[in-house]
């Protein structure tokens, strides 16, 4: 048993990882092209963070939280700031592809590294499936807007069409007319009715989602230079449109719409947390580029902080403009930026915004399709996945097999499945990665002090949390009692049976972790920033509900089965024993 525990926690030291980085990459068959500079990294971060979040999900978040949702973006920025600082230290100390997976290997050990790597693969894949479907919706709407009709069964996934058709039949049986049904139900009904059949199976598929995924995968396949140029161009266009929205929209803001500022209280503001963190995985995407940066130890930390600051400012300002232009309750639409301009009769601007959303979604797909193969590649180099995933194309210098697999994993489900409802699942994975990176800094400081002390790159500023953390927790508790007493009363109430209790389980666990971490911080003088980052990310995970936790745990269990069936015995560290 002790030997098993030792094997599961075997670590790759910072010194060994740095030696791998400094050694000639060609000896490992991983000679990627170092071409990315600071501006390219910042562009990648902005491309990943400002996408579906700002063109789509910001609407539902604003509808739930009102103008106060701007506070959520500030709170998220602070939470991500703590995580970004921890990411930055790891990136400077370990400039190797693999992101949080590599960082966990150096701090927690192999088993946790595998878990976070498996988690990241889920995040990137499901996130991109949802983005591809959303891109298809915008693209189809623009085509219809210019009079170019496409059959509905070629632009809708199978599940949406099937479910919408059944719903339409039920409503029609109740006496409602087809024209009176919601637009998406009408579209699903028409798609199912008109779709050709093969062997009794309706041929309904979202081909635009397939097409954009194939195009982006091809760009990533042929090289980092092409991906870089495309990402930079898409980000430039996207920022110009966002500045247009802010500058024009500011003239139509009615301050009366900002009252009340938080109509649904703290609960309403926090309801949008999953939509926000769905976008913020961009930090992780930046760190996957380490082996293709000209100066990763200097530029990666700077890029993470700059991307965070720029994106947060844009999110806050846009939230205030949107909720100022129209009453917040009207923003629960799929295209809020275009909607607000249609609402004030600026249809030309609305058309420009709708078209730009296509660019925004494409840039997100590009960054995530770029990042995921490099995680596959790094896990393969460590022996946890088959060697094919780490093969580098002799001409394009990209992990070509991993890139192709990534394209298939995203494109095929996007054809037939409606996975937009799993935004919460992507968010819980992002928060899990952030929490482990923050915790990894604490462990790394304890277990590899010599290696950390000798590296000259960025380090998280040390602030002794011994007394500050208990004071902050006490202040937060007092504020909670003063401004949200109803929530506190509900939390301690045992009424409502299992239906009520199941939603509190994760919060009970968080309180227990907080108590333990507070004691450890007091006794060991732990650094405040990674501790706060860890606690904030864990708290936000409790906001995502038991259903998402159960799905997340099921995915991790599947990953553990694969690890023990293949990775445990084929690990390079295991073979060195």
From TrEMBL:
Keywords: Membrane, Transmembrane, Transmembrane helix, Transport. The keyword Hydrolase does not apply. It is found in: Membrane. InterPro entries: AA/rel_permease1, CAT_C. It is a multi-pass membrane protein. The keyword Aminoacyl-tRNA synthetase does not apply. Pfam families: AA_permease_2 (PF13520), AA_permease_C (PF13906). PANTHER family: CATIONIC AMINO ACID TRANSPORTER 4, INNER MEMBRANE TRANSPORTER YGJI-RELATED. This is Amino acid transporter. It comes from Pontibacter actiniarum.
């Amino acid at each position: 048993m002790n030997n098993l525990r030792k094997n599961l926690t075997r670590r790759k030291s910072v010194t060994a990882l740095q030696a791998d980085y400094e050694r000639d990459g060609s000896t490992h068959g991983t000679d990627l092209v170092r071409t990315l500079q600071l501006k390219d990294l910042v562009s990648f971060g902005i491309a990943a963070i400002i996408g579906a979040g700002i063109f789509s999900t910001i609407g539902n978040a604003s509808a739930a939280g009102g103008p106060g949702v701007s506070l959520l973006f500030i709170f998220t920025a602070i939470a991500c700031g703590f995580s970004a600082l921890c990411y930055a230290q790891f990136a400077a100390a370990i400039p190797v592809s693999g992101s949080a997976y590599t960082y966990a290997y150096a701090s927690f050990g192999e088993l946790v590294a595998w878990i976070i790597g498996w988690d990241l693969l889920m995040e990137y894949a499901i996130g991109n499936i949802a983005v591809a479907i959303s891109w298809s919706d915008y693209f189809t709407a623009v085509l219809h807007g210019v009079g170019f009709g496409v059959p509905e069964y070629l632009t809708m996934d199978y599940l949406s069409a099937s479910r919408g058709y059944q719903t339409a039949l039920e409503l029609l049986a109740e006496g409602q007319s087809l024209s009176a049904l919601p637009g998406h139900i009408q579209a699903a009904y028409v798609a199912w009715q008109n779709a050709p059949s093969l062997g009794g199976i309706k041929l309904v598929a979202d081909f635009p989602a397939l097409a954009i995924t194939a195009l982006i995968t091809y760009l990533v396949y042929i090289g980092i230079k092409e991906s870089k140029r495309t990402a930079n161009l898409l980000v430039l266009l996207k920022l110009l449109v966002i500045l247009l929205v802010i500058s024009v929209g500011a003239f139509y803001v009615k301050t009366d719409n900002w009252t009340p500022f938080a109509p649904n209280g703290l609960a309403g503001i926090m309801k949008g947390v999953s939509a926000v963190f769905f976008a913020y995985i961009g930090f992780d995407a930046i760190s996957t580029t380490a082996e293709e940066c000209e100066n990763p130890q200097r530029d990666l930390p700077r890029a993470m902080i700059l991307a965070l600051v720029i994106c947060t400012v844009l999110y806050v300002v846009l939230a205030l403009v949107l909720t100022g232009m129209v009453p917040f309750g009207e923003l629960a639409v799929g295209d809020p930026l275009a909607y607000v301009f249609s609402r004030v009769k600026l249809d030309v601007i609305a058309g420009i915004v709708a078209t730009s959303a296509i660019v925004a979604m494409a840039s997100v797909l590009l960054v995530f399709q770029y990042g995921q193969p490099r995680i596959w590649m790094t896990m393969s180099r460590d022996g946890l996945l088959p060697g094919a995933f780490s093969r580098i194309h002799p001409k394009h210098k990209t992990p070509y097999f991993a890139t192709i697999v990534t394209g298939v994993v995203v494109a095929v489900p996007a054809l037939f499945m409606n996975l937009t409802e799993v935004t919460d699942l992507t968010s819980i994975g992002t928060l899990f990665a952030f929490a482990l990176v923050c915790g990894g800094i604490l462990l790394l400081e304890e277990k590899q002090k010599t290696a950390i002390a000798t590296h000259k790159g960025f380090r998280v500023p040390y602030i002794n949390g011994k007394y500050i953390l208990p004071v902050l927790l006490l202040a937060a508790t007092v504020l909670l009692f003063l401004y949200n007493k109803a929530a506190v009363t509900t939390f301690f109430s045992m009424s409502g049976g299992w239906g009520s209790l199941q939603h509190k389980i994760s919060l009970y666990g968080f309180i227990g972790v907080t108590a333990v971490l507070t004691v450890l911080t007091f006794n060991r003088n732990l650094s405040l920033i990674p501790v706060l980052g860890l606690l904030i990310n864990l708290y936000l995970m409790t906001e995502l509900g038991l259903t998402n936790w159960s799905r997340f745990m099921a995915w991790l269990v599947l990953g553990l089965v694969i690890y023990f069936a293949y990775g445990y015995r084929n690990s390079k560290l295991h073979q060195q024993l």
